[in-house]
Design a protein that fits this description.
Length: about 180
């Protein structure tokens, strides 16, 4: 705990250094258990319930995400004020209209989610509604994490078979009408 002095700015700097690939050296001196303990005691437990819930819900996203995406996975009331508070506490950043959680914060908050599959499914639905190539890739990731891939494949397979069945029936009916 002394290594980061209870300072969110120090945690943010730590996250940036880790993101540059210098993590091996730092992690030798800073085991994961101590980082988790530090984050929970010095930062997370100091947050109000809205901040905790929103941070956990946002940790489902591995790439920068929009406000609309947050609304899809979280029902926290007063999201704008809570986002602003989390930004002031340097636990999230907003860049080019998208939010970002430093990886260390994200991975710790992700471990605190009660039902990650549910949130991944909601994130997948959001990305599927966006329709871009990037959003389809993110939707696929979230579908897999939601353990819904098999269900999606079965649904698509059944839809395809039903479609084939309907097409074959239509062809047969049109041939019968010609005779």
């Amino acid at each position: 705990q002394r290594k980061l002095s209870g300072n969110p700015r120090a945690l943010n700097t730590f996250c940036q250094v880790v993101g540059r690939g210098e993590k091996i050296e730092l992690l030798r001196d800073f085991p994961e258990k101590e980082l988790l303990e530090y984050f929970l005691n010095e930062i997370y437990y100091q947050l109000n319930e809205k901040e905790k819930n929103l941070l956990k819900h946002m940790s489902i996203f591995r790439a920068p995400f929009t406000f609309k995406a947050i609304r899809r996975v979280s029902d926290v009331k007063g999201i704008y004020g809570t986002l602003y508070s989390l930004e002031r506490k340097m636990l999230i950043e907003k860049v080019n209209g998208k939010y970002f959680i430093p990886e260390v914060v994200r991975s710790i908050c992700y471990k605190l989610i009660d039902n990650p599959k549910e949130l991944h499914w909601q994130a997948a639905q959001y990305y599927l509604s966006e329709g871009s190539t990037e959003s389809i890739a993110e939707a696929t990731y979230h579908i897999i994490k939601a353990d819904a891939f098999r269900g999606i494949v079965e649904t698509l397979h059944n839809d395809f078979q039903l479609s084939e069945f309907n097409n074959n029936n239509e062809e047969r009916d049109s041939l019968t009408e010609v005779k």
